[in-house]
Design goal:
Blueprint (H helix, E strand, L loop, with lengths): L4 H6 L7 E4 L3 E5 L9 E5 L11 H8 L2 H10 L6 E5 L15 E6 L19 H12 L5
Antiparallel strand pairs: 1-2, 2-3, 3-5, 4-5
C-alpha cells in the first residue's frame, strides 16, 4: 500500500532501525520506544489486522516472535519480562492500520508501560458463558 507508513518502512523509504528481516517480516524499533528495545514485528504483506491473516501468513509472522523476544531479552541484563501486544482496530488501540506486534521489554513496575484489565468475574452465568463458547465454536474454521 503506497501511503501506509509501515509499508514505507518495509521498503526503507522511511529511516528505521531494523533488528531482523527476512522475506516475510521486518522487525524494527518503534519510534516511541515506550521502553528501551520496544520493537515492532510486521508482515511485509500489507494486511490491516489479524482478521486478514491466512494460516500461511500467521505461521510466517508468529513463528518468529519467540526468537525475537529471546534476542531482545538477551541483549540487556536488566530486562525482567516482556509484554507482547497485538491490537486490532481503533477500538483496540491500533493506531497504524498495518498489522503489527509490539514486543515491549519490561525493566520494572514503573518503567512507563501499563496494562489494565476490567474484572467481570461472575457477571455472566455458566449458561451464558456456555452459549458464548458454543457460538464461537460453530464459527471455527477447520
Amino acid at each position: 500500500m503506497d501511503d501506509c507508513i509501515f509499508c514505507k518502512i518495509i521498503r526503507n523509504e522511511i529511516p528505521n532501525i531494523t533488528i531482523y528481516e527476512d522475506d516475510d517480516i521486518k522487525a524494527f524499533f518503534d519510534i516511541s520506544q515506550v521502553t528501551p528495545g520496544h520493537t515492532l514485528v510486521v508482515p511485509k504483506k500489507h494486511v490491516e489486522n489479524i482478521f486478514e491473516y491466512d494460516e500461511d501468513l500467521a505461521q510466517k509472522v508468529f513463528k518468529k516472535i519467540p526468537m525475537l523476544a529471546r534476542a531482545i531479552k538477551a541483549s540487556n541484563k536488566d530486562i525482567i519480562g516482556m509484554n507482547i501486544c497485538q491490537n486490532n482496530g481503533e477500538i483496540a488501540y491500533q493506531s497504524v492500520m498495518h498489522s503489527h506486534v509490539h514486543l515491549v521489554p519490561r525493566y520494572s513496575s514503573d518503567d512507563d508501560f501499563s496494562m489494565t484489565w476490567g474484572d467481570n468475574t461472575g457477571k455472566a452465568s455458566d449458561e451464558q458463558l456456555q452459549a458464548r463458547a458454543d457460538n464461537i465454536k460453530k464459527n471455527l474454521e477447520a
